[in-house]
Each structure stands twice: as C-alpha cells, then as structure tokens.
Amino acid sequence: MKIFATRVIPPDGLELLQRAGLTVTQWTEKRGLSAAELIAHCQQYDALLLASDNHIDRAFLEQCRHLKIIALLSVGYDKVDVAAANDLRIPVTNTPGVLSAATADTAFLLMLSVARKAFFHYKRILRGDWNFSEPTANLGIDLEGKTLGIWGLGNIGHVMAKRCVSAFGMKVIYHNRGRNEAAEKELGAVRVSFEALLAQSDVLSVHTALTPETTGMFNKAVFSQMKPSAIFINTARGAIHNEGDLIAALQQGVIWGAGLDVTNPEPMQPDNPLLDMPTVAVLPHIGSATVETRNAMSVMAAKNILAAFNGTPLPNQVTSL
Ligand code: DGY
C-alpha cells in the first residue's frame, strides 16, 4: 500500500505508517503542488495524506476515485467537497481535538499582543526608534475583568475561554447554535444572541468552521455593531471576515484592534495595510504549529490511514460513508 503526502510529515505519524509496512512518499519541494500535479501523483498511490491547502474538489475526486482514504492533517475540512466525496464513496478524515490547546494559545497570544501593541513596539526597536520614552505614547489596554465573546464555542473556544478566565478573570459570553453546558458550568459562560455578543464583547474571538453561512460574516455591518474599544481575533479561517471591511473598521476607529492567524487570501502580501497598524497582530496560520501538536496530528492521520487499509472503522471520518 502506497501513501502520498503533500508535505514532509511530522515524525511520529510517519514512523507509525512505516512500522506498519506502508510506503510513504513525501512531497519535499518548497513549493505547493498544482491541482494537475496533485491528481497526477495521486493516480499512482492508494491513499492521500493532505498537509497542504490544495482543494479537494469534485474534479479531483472524480479522477482519483480509487483512493482508499484522504486523511487530512488538519481539523478544518472546508477545502474538501464532502458531498462529492460522499457521492464517490471516498472516505475523508480530519484531526479534531489534538490541536485545540495550541490553537487556543495562538488566539490568546494574538489577544495579548494586540492589547499591548506588542508587534508594533517590536518593530520600533528594529527601526531604531527606542530612544525617547513618553508616558502617554502608544499605550495598550488592560484585559483584567474584560468580557471575552466567543463565536463558536467548541473545543478550541473552550480552551481559549479557560485561558482568559484564569489569566485575567474575564467574563465569558458566547454565541452558538446550541448550548455548551460544559463551558457554562466550568467557566460561567453565558450564551447570548449574536447581536449581544457584538455589543458586549471587549475581545471577540472567532472559533467557528468556515461554511457558506459563516463566509464573510464579519463585515462592515457586523463590525459597526461592536464596541469602538473592541479587539477582533480570528484563528479559524480568513474567509470568515471581509478583509476590506476589517481594514476600514480599524482605520475609522469602528473597532480598536485585530489579531489574525488566518487571512484571506493566504499568504498575506507584505504590503498589506494591516501589517502597518499599531493595534494589529498577524501570524502566518501557525495555530497548530508546535512540535507536540503537529506530531499528535500526524499520529491521528496515520491511525485513520491504517484503519482504512485494515478495513476497520475510521476514527475521525468527516464523510458519512
Ligand atoms: C486546521 O487544522 O484546520 C488548521 O487551521 C490548519 O489548517
């Protein structure tokens, strides 16, 4: 059985596959595969381990319907046409849970960096502008006792809320379709309407999946309902916010700051105006990028592949086969 991996895979998962006698070929070039190249490669393999942002659309699936499994090295599966995979009976799996803490830590890092203008002050040092300190210049804001609003309180949002409660005694409100009773019990989180979430949050952190309903959800009309002192954090998917509207909201003081681990498009270009704003912190989609977490994700993906080859139930299937 032969597996094609679209990137070099963290060692723990790779070893698991190799110890089971499977052959893993990794794409080692420092450039992404085109759609045509991905199809051409996959046609020679039995399984795909997808660790890149290639889109798994119907055209790909129709030409690679022999694949026994497409194992994603991510929790998000918005890049996959799940309906087409279901139609063609190609199982797709993801890596939920194991990256919740690392991703929540990235949201927390962004929140604190924005609140204290950390990226801006770091850039001052780089340009030799650390010579005259003024007690009133370039001040940040405290987070102690402020209100954290979570849009999409699942695993990642829960860890983010936990961090914020224990570090800063923040009050937690959230908006979900259903209730998160565990977070209500553990953290005193209160479920509110979307309008109340916008109006009351001092920090609004997005942890929802990208779906047709959430695409472009944070736009001019939504930003205008937030506090002028609010910080917007997105570690979920860049397409959930409208970038032009976010830039305008920051420039016009409609909201105070933003922390982004995800942008639209990715990669963000170096001349993007967001990168020059003192109350903005941007990271290049590193939510799950720790040694421990990436290894855990690779083990999970490997276990899904092994299950597919052994004909046992797939632990983390997103398709409904
Ligand atoms: C995920 O796992 O979905 C991360 O955002 C990486 O894409």
UniProtKB/TrEMBL annotation:
It is an enzyme of class 1 (oxidoreductase). GO terms for molecular function: glyoxylate reductase (NADPH) activity; hydroxypyruvate reductase [NAD(P)H] activity; NAD binding. Residues 109-287 form the D-isomer specific 2-hydroxyacid dehydrogenase NAD-binding domain. Residues 5-318 form the D-isomer specific 2-hydroxyacid dehydrogenase catalytic domain. It catalyses: (R)-glycerate + NAD(+) = 3-hydroxypyruvate + NADH + H(+); (R)-glycerate + NADP(+) = 3-hydroxypyruvate + NADPH + H(+); glycolate + NADP(+) = glyoxylate + NADPH + H(+). It comes from the Bacteria. The keyword Oxidoreductase applies. InterPro entries: D-isomer_2-hydroxyacid_DH (IPR050223), D-isomer_2_OHA_DH_cat_dom (IPR006139), D-isomer_DH_NAD-bd (IPR006140), NAD(P)-bd_dom_sf (IPR036291). Keywords: Oxidoreductase. GO terms for cellular component: cytosol. Its EC number is 1.1.1.79, 1.1.1.81. The keyword Ribosomal protein does not apply. Belongs to the D-isomer specific 2-hydroxyacid dehydrogenase family. GhrB subfamily. PANTHER family: 2-HYDROXYACID DEHYDROGENASE-RELATED (PTHR10996), GLYOXYLATE REDUCTASE 1 (PTHR10996:SF257). This is Glyoxylate/hydroxypyruvate reductase B. It comes from Chitinophaga fulva.
